[in-house]
Amino acid sequence: MSHDILTIGAATRDIFLVSDAFRSIANKSFEGGHAECVPLGSKIEIQTFVSTSGGGATNAAATFRSLGYRTAITCRIGNDSIGRDLLEDLKKYRIETKYVNRVTDGQTAYSTLLTMPEGERTVLVYRGVSAKFTEADIHWSAIRKSKWVYLTSLGGNFELSKKIVEFAHKHHVKIAWNPGGGELKKGIKAFSSVLPLVDVFIINKEEAELLTAETNLKKLCTILKKEGMIRLITDGSKGTTLIDGLLIHKVGTSGTKGISKTGAGDAFGSGFVAAFLKFKDARMAARIGTINAESVIQHLGAKKGVLKIWPTESKLRKIKIV
User: Fold this and answer.
1) pLDDT tens, position by position, 180-192
2) CB 148 within 8 A of CB 6
3) 314 contacts: CB under 8 Å, gap ≥ 6
4) Concatenated DSSP letters for 123-183?
5) Alpha-carbon span 12 to 26, nearest angstrom
6) Any idea what DSSP says for residue 312?
7) Residue 230 forms part of a structural domain
8) CATH number of the domain that 238 lies in?
């Protein structure tokens, strides 16, 4: 059976802990200039506890399936209780799970998100078996049977990511790629041969700077743009730079405030691709990707707010593009 979309990447258990005891303290010795702190040796009261599934591949799959696409997933989970819970969650979304790899004696990835009431958080990540993708984990026949592949981070395995992109291109399967920091740190020289094969390339501003070693947005766009291909550089509440072939657009936001940033990038990227499949219009897709992300950040968890119907014209008009 063929699929509209196959997502490939991480699957995790996400635990959100929200407490007004978590404090943000300015300190230049920390990346970003701030640290999230708690009193050492104390017991911290948690006001909200939420347990969800997460990981780039499962989050993207939830958007695609919720918007009506036949969706399958390739990920790695342990043969443990968390892995079994993730499988059940995927089945609730009616996502095809036959390409999920269950690793004997392996531990499923796990994240704890220490979240302040205003939404800022620190993520404690244990990558488990998601960090060890190999060629044997990739179901190449499933790629051939899909119209699109949505590739997320493979725990920094750039060479395997590259092989997936090349294989999809060879078999005329469209590919969207949202790599992680482990892949991007290889630099633009390593990406130069594979980027021209990627139909939709999605990264945030910090990742774009890491990849290109360039902080000037105009120069950065010049490095990434490719005729006939789409590149998206997200920048949180500041919006997104859409590079549509050789044209560059600034995509705004509606100004919606959220309670959690977790899953916003996955929601934007998958929302964009889902809409692009339907409307074949990059600007329309960027609006819908933004609306999907803004919906997700209203909730704790990366799936609860994903769109189930296409946005109304009035909602679309709130997202300005220049």
Assistant:
1) 999 999 999 999 9
2) yes
3) none
4) EEEE-GGGG---GGG--HHHHHTEEEEEE---TT-HHHHHHHHHHHHHTT-EEEE---HHH
5) 30
6) P
7) yes
8) 3.40.1190.20
